[in-house]
Write a structure and sequence with these properties.
697 residues; alpha/beta; Purple Acid Phosphatase, chain A, domain 2; 5'-nucleotidase,  domain 2; Recoverin, domain 1; 3 domains; 6-stranded mixed sheet; 19 helices; 35% helix; disordered C terminus
Length: 697
């Protein structure tokens, strides 16, 4: 349904705001600089932090290659309302992958409320805050939720990356939020009982003569490409309805002639890309849209609707004012004023600042923690000359990523290879033979904000693209790859011969995981030419995966596997000793390859039938053999969550029985795979013998 266009007067006013044309003083923002917070104390250092957490605190989200629509942000100062003026002030942040600026956001919100006497002030985040970044890979978004509750935000809406963390954990976050979690187009979500489909904000003038109602509606992108890699579907299999059908339905419900709510206007809170935001602008008569998803700032007027996106990480916040000057003003056409303000212009709240600092402490015990033994095939492990050769660290990280990505994907979504530019392997270190790979090493080698995605690539282009970077002087784009790729270095430049351990098929379409921006940055001319000519083949930005977060999840799962394997070895030893002492040839309890009850008994130190987080912590030290900090249980909680296969919140014998069954299934699959592999090898050998005989004749 195409609704009527906006009034020309609104278009002119908003276009003037966007283009920077002069407008009446009464309609302009005050340009006074913000005052420093009264919370400042000489006893607390509140300058921008430059602590040891800087690398971990860096954003884990994608970075836009587009320029901002605006080049600077005017200073702004909140002001009291006039007696007859109804004013709604909205402070918005979006796509936040770091806690760094949230203490300043708290001060911004508090000062705005204190100085905007008579104005209704609300604050919100419009999606993407639980993932992807290193901290959330460990604490599953708990530090972020603690900070958002401490501001406190009034509203949260969904982003696509909230699907990245375990669904049951996300549901817990929904129920723990102190404000309102808005969700208009995913109504069968498992935690919908703790969410609102919409909300009505009543705005009243100081003298009580001018009362307005504003509807808040939150829609999330339903683009299937954003969610195709989730087994069982994103958000626990919830249905994401069409955003525009949802907006049409709720516009009628909140503003229609028969509406019980009688809203004056609606503010769509969207998590959509700009082209989709434009559809909303052109289809509906909403005066303003607050959106996220794109990570650059956007301030533009499209068909009379002002579209605002403050960019990522709360570096900037949108400050929107919707004003009805008096009770005679047209109900659905408020004055719209907006600016992006730099949150660092407000001193950070000292209590929240310290809380956010402490949130990153959970990473400290991991810095010297063994994440993985380095397989001998990658030794000696080295990241030196990554811009002039394929180094073993490049091989190792790409191989880890391939394993991790394929572990969490359906068969038809698995990747054939992983490629990273040498400039992304940045440690420049030689590691001792026999050393282990730690979180400290991961942070040294890969920046915390590096992201990859999967792109389809013809075999011929894959070969030409890699070969083009492997000749001449060292360059940042010297391509690193996983251990399934082989090149013939007897030729110059080298020729790619194998992908995924098999001879390359130049006509096959391979699924390649890599940094998407590297495909068009000119380092590999064949790729740049091809993908600039075919940008439609590049994946959407919302489908990117943070490298550090992906590997941290992979390593954490491996820790549970190490506990499991060590437990099996311990039980085997106990059974052998028991049989020797009792001179038994067999013991019924020792017959099973995987006895869940015995494993529970071994891990359950207090005998209550449940494996606690503390008992997992002991197992990490005693069975997995890693160094753990007894004061910090975050890693143990993560492993405990992984071990909770039933999702009950407890680890019981039922969970261990599931792992036992999976172990048996994997064993049987491996036997079948080995049988087929041996049969294939035998057939190939027979063929080789036949060919040899023919040649001899």
């Amino acid at each position: 349904m195409i609704l009527s266009r906006k009034a020309t007067s609104l278009l002119v006013l908003q276009a003037a705001l966007f283009l920077g044309c002069s407008i009446p003083t009464a309609d302009a923002f005050s340009l006074l600089a913000p005052q420093q917070s009264k919370l400042r104390s000489d006893k607390v250092i509140l300058s921008r932090p430059t602590t040891l957490h800087a690398a971990a605190r860096a954003s884990g989200g994608r970075k836009s290659g587009q320029d901002d629509k605006i080049s600077s942000s005017d200073a702004w100062e909140p002001t009291p309302c006039k007696p007859e003026e109804a004013r709604l002030t909205v402070i918005q942040i979006t796509d936040v992958y770091t806690l760094e600026h949230l203490a300043s956001v708290k001060t911004l919100v508090e000062e705005t409320r204190a100085k905007s006497d008579g104005s209704k002030v609300i604050c919100m985040i419009t999606g993407d805050f639980l993932s992807p970044y290193l901290l959330s890979s460990v604490d599953r978004g708990q530090g972020m939720m603690n900070a958002l509750n401490a501001i406190p935000l009034d509203y949260i809406t969904w982003g696509n990356h909230e699907a990245d963390i375990p669904h049951k954990t996300t549901c817990k976050h929904v129920r723990s939020f102190v404000g309102k979690w808005l969700n208009s187009n995913m109504l069968d979500h498992d935690a919908m009982d703790a969410q609102e489909e919409f909300d009505i904000v009543e705005v009243c003038s100081p003298d009580g003569s001018n009362i307005r109602k504003v509807g808040l509606v939150a829609v999330l992108s339903n683009d299937p490409k954003l969610y195709e890699h989730f087994k069982g579907g994103a958000f626990g299999g919830a249905t994401i309805d069409d955003p525009w059908e949802t907006l049409t339905r709720l516009q009628k419900k909140l503003m229609g002639p028969d509406s019980e709510y009688k809203c004056d206007t609606i503010i769509p809170l969207q998590h959509l890309y700009v082209p989709d935001d434009h559809i909303t602008c052109k289809t509906f008569d909403f005066p303003v849209i607050l959106s996220g998803h794109d990570h650059h700032r956007v301030d533009e007027v499209v068909d009379g609707t002002r579209l605002l996106k403050p960019g990522m990480d709360a570096v900037y916040a949108t400050v929107l004012e919707m004003i009805w000057p008096d009770k005679e003003a047209e109900s659905n056409m408020p004055q719209v004023k907006a600016r992006f303000v730099k949150t660092d212009d407000w001193m950070p709240d000292p209590v929240l600042y310290e809380q956010c600092e402490r949130a990153y402490d959970v990473l400290e015990p991991l810095k010297k923690t063994e994440l993985a033994k380095v397989p001998p095939v990658f030794e000696p492990l080295s990241s030196t000359n990554a811009r002039g050769s394929v180094c073993t660290m490049g091989l190792y990280i790409c191989s880890l990523l391939r394993s991790s990505l394929n572990l969490s994907r359906n068969l038809d979504q698995r990747v054939d290879t992983v490629l990273l530019m040498g400039g992304n392997i940045r440690g420049g270190q030689d590691y001792e033979v026999g050393s282990y790979f730690s979180l400290e090493g991961l942070e040294a080698e890969i920046k915390s904000d590096e992201v990859i995605s999967v792109v389809d690539m013809p075999g011929w282009l894959l070969a030409e693209g890699i070969s083009a970077t492997h000749s001449g002087d060292p360059i940042p784009g010297w391509m690193q790859y996983d251990n399934g790729i082989f090149e013939d270095f007897t030729q110059s430049p080298p020729v790619l011969t194998q992908v995924a351990g098999k001879p390359i098929d130049h006509d096959k379409i391979y699924r390649v995981a890599t940094k998407i921006s590297d495909l068009t940055n000119g380092q590999s001319p064949p790729w740049t030419e091809y993908y600039k000519a075919h940008p439609e083949l590049l994946p959407p930005k919302g489908n990117y995966v943070n490298i550090q977060a992906e590997l941290m999840s992979y390593f954490a799962g491996n820790l549970w596997q190490r506990i499991w394997d060590s437990l099996g070895e311990k039980l085997d030893e106990d059974c052998d000793a028991e049989m020797y002492e009792k001179k038994k040839m067999e013991d019924p309890e020792c017959e099973s390859v995987c006895n869940a009850e015995l494993r529970l008994e071994t891990l359950d130190a207090d005998g209550d039938g449940i494996i606690s987080v503390e008992e997992i912590q002991d197992a990490l030290s005693d069975l997995a053999g890693i160094s753990v900090d007894p004061r910090e249980l975050t890693l143990a909680e993560f492993v405990h969550e992984f071990a909770d296969a039933t999702g009950s919140g407890e680890v019981t014998v039922e969970d261990l029985e599931i792992f036992c069954r999976e172990l048996g299934e994997r064993y049987e699959r491996e036997k079948i795979r080995q049988f087929l592999s041996n049969r294939s090898s035998a057939a190939n050998n027979a063929g080789d013998s036949t060919n040899a005989t023919v040649v001899a004749k």
